[in-house]
């Protein structure tokens, strides 16, 4: 038995006196008692909470944990500002004579549109300046675009399926030659088929990422790792091995990315596990599907042409019939579906597919849902799929959104308070390593709708601000429903798992612009402390 003594409580689902001190009684990883005042007991089982604020620990319902861990071991180019700096970093890291035979030069997080010393986007031709006769792969910060060199192009072209199925996402010059730039599903294809990691690399990358989760109070993740692993079995083995070895301090739900209906059929035929099945800490998540691209690349599918690129309204990856088939089969086989859908045309397509199967049984999800409309909100309110939002995205995109969608549609972008008001369930997440991993930064963005400097003043579309309680619930209680664990996790209640964090300050009581400064002092999972600052 343990007693967590001398703490304040912040329970997003309850309004209570924030000045009351409590102590919690925990036994066998379960909360057995919640009592006002300090405990009268003493001894090793009593842990002094030092009047920290105790709240449920966070769930990140949309993350790429393997990719995040890999970034800790590969070139991080997120902060470079010049092409010369990129070349210097690569040359400092890679010496051809010391590289293994099949090793690639890999950089992640590059934003080549912001490089100050060149006036064009990088292509394979530019990568020749690195003077390494090795395949190269540079991934954009948002994960939806990559640049490869001529050596990599020769390898990639050997697989005819990339041109057969992903030709529209392969950039070509005026002569029809591949430039070395790829978008959206073509990027996923390259990662899956040519950037596959060994079991040891996957193991070490996941292990490297775990401490960062605990530092931010994240004790459960829903992660899409298949692109870099090559097989679901390999991902499953990594996480369950870590669990058996006592090295997995969090709870994990593993998504299965698919492209074709046949991918889903193969999984269902060869793996008996379904959503929610697994071990104590590792369980099957959802079938993951990309329905469109991004607004930055003008590949998110819109119902009207882009304001700043009127010759296009984006790309739907599937026909309605193809998507209906995938969703229907998954639902019939008790697999949850989670769909990447950013543009309003894509969200409409996802809604139509879900309306045919319903959402009550499997609690299907729509990821991002960034561009909505009055009609879409009405349909979502009736259907009630779970929307997975990423608040930190608006800190980087708020000043570009109107350029993409136009002023009339801007008010329906990231319309989280409207979603909440209509009773549409939603969770909050990072999409890390694309977005900020810290939930506190996500809470800051949702409550203020500003960047870290407080801009724009008063917040972007302030009517869509969320309260601290609303967004905190989206990080704690609501994700437990997606896990079918709503009677076990996500709350500080008797009978629930003792998954909680201790905060330096109460997010309800600080100024809204100070939320981002709140620190996680301790993280607990199943009644065991797994992190202490």
UniProtKB/TrEMBL annotation:
| UniProt cross-references to Pfam families, sorted A to Z | Amidohydro_3
Q: Which residues form the Amidohydrolase domain?
A: 45-531
Origin organism lineage: Bacteria, Bacillati, Bacillota, Bacilli, Bacillales
Please report the name of this protein according to its UniProt entry.
Amidohydrolase YtcJ
């Amino acid at each position: 038995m343990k007693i967590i003594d001398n703490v304040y409580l912040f329970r997003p689902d309850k309004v209570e006196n924030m000045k009351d001190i409590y102590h919690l009684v925990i036994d066998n990883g379960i909360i057995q008692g919640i009592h006002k005042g300090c405990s009268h007991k003493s001894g090793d089982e009593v842990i002094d909470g030092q009047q920290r604020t105790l709240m449920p620990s966070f769930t990140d319902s949309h993350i790429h944990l393997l990719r995040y861990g890999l970034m800790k071991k590969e070139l991080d180019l997120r902060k470079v500002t010049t092409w010369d700096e990129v070349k210097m970093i690569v040359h400092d890291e890679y010496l051809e004579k010391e590289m293994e035979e099949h090793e690639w030069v890999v950089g992640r997080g590059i934003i080549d549109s912001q490089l100050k010393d060149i006036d064009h986007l990088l292509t394979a031709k530019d990568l020749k300046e690195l003077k390494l006769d090795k395949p190269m792969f540079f991934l954009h910060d948002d994960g939806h675009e990559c640049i490869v060199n001529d050596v990599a192009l020769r390898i990639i072209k050997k697989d005819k399926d990339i041109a057969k199925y992903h030709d529209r996402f392969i950039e070509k010059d005026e002569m029809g030659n591949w430039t070395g730039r790829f978008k959206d599903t073509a990027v996923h294809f390259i990662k899956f088929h040519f950037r596959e990691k060994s079991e040891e690399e996957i193991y070490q990358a996941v292990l490297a990422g775990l401490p960062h989760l605990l530092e931010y109070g994240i004790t459960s993740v829903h992660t899409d790792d298949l692109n870099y692993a090559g097989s679901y079995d390999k991902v499953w083995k990594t996480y369950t091995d870590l669990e058996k070895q006592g090295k997995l301090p969090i709870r994990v739900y593993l998504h299965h990315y698919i492209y074709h209906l046949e991918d889903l059929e193969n999984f269902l035929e060869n793996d008996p596990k379904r959503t929610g099945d697994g071990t104590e800490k590792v369980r099957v998540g959802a079938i993951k599907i990309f329905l469109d691209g991004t607004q930055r690349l003008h590949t998110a599918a819109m119902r009207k042409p882009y304001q700043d690129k009127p010759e296009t309204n984006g790309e739907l990856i599937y026909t309605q019939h193809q998507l209906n088939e995938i969703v229907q089969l998954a639902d019939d086989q008790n697999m949850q579906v989670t769909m990447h859908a950013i543009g309003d045309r894509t969200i409409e397509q996802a809604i139509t597919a879900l309306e045919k199967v319903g959402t009550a049984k499997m609690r299907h999800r729509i990821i991002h849902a960034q561009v909505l409309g009055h009609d879409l909100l009405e349909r979502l309110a009736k259907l009630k799929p779970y929307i997975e939002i990423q608040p930190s995205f608006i800190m980087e995109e708020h000043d570009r959104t109107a350029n993409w969608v136009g002023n009339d549609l801007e008010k329906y972008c990231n319309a989280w308070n409207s979603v909440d008001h209509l009773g549409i369930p939603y969770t909050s997440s990072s999409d890390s390593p694309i977005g900020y991993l810290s939930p506190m930064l996500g809470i800051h963005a949702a409550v203020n709708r500003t960047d870290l400097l407080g801009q724009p003043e008063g917040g972007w579309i302030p009517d869509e601000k969320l309260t601290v309680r609303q967004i905190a619930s989206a990080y704690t209680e609501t994700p437990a429903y997606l896990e079918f664990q709503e009677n076990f996790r996500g709350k500080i209640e008797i009978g629930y798992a003792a998954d909680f964090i201790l905060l330096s300050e109460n997010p309800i009581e600080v100024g809204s612009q100070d939320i981002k400064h709140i620190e996680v002092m301790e993280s607990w999972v199943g009644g065991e402390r797994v992190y202490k600052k």
